[in-house]
UniProtKB/TrEMBL annotation:
Residues 23-34, 175-184 have a biased composition (Basic and acidic residues). Belongs to the TPPP family. Residues 1-48, 167-192 are annotated as: Disordered. Gene3D superfamilies: EF-hand. This is Tubulin polymerization-promoting protein. PANTHER family: P25 ALPHA-RELATED, TUBULIN POLYMERIZATION-PROMOTING PROTEIN.
Amino acid sequence: MADSKAKAAKTANRTPPKSPGDPSREKSAERLPQEPEGTPEGAAAQGLSALEEAFRKFAVHGDTRATGREMHGKNWSKLCRDCQVIDGKNVTVTDVDIVFSKIKGKSCRTITFEQFQEALQELSRKRFKDKSSEEALQEVHRLIEGKAPIIAGVTKAVSSPTVSRLTDTSRFTGSHKERFDPSGKGRGKAGRVDLLDESGYVSGYKHAGTYNQKVQSGK
């Protein structure tokens, strides 16, 4: 009886055999890596706040190798200027540089977004002195949120007497003068090469082609 009960227990615990399948599919399934749910970069981009988005835009400005996670002191100053955090009265360029040096690490040259928020909190107290700490911070955030670096226009060339003298064709002498007509327009090949005059007139004669007019006026 004991032996029959032991055999029955073994048959009950026995797992059913697996159904035969394609071995190549099983191997390929084992080799495929498990894909993460969703796209982390896309989710992170959608989850960015307006303040962090502005931080990243300024952080990568002028630096193709920047990741947008850290900001240099130059871009920090530009952000404060472009977003009018610097008003020239309560907050100056010096104040911005001092806060940046205070927030960043001793051996670091950049600040993270968390340090950026700390720096804004420092400046908000100076920028909006007549408001509470929370209101002042909110006002500074409003100045920055949704903003992007301002790209300056093309620098105009500054006129100088030297450049004007070198480009004024009326002051040219010698062979250079022969290359331009009185209006300053180039004469092309005629100003560079002595062309042979085959008209039959003497060189330098100024009344070429007026013979018919003289004959008709004499009649």
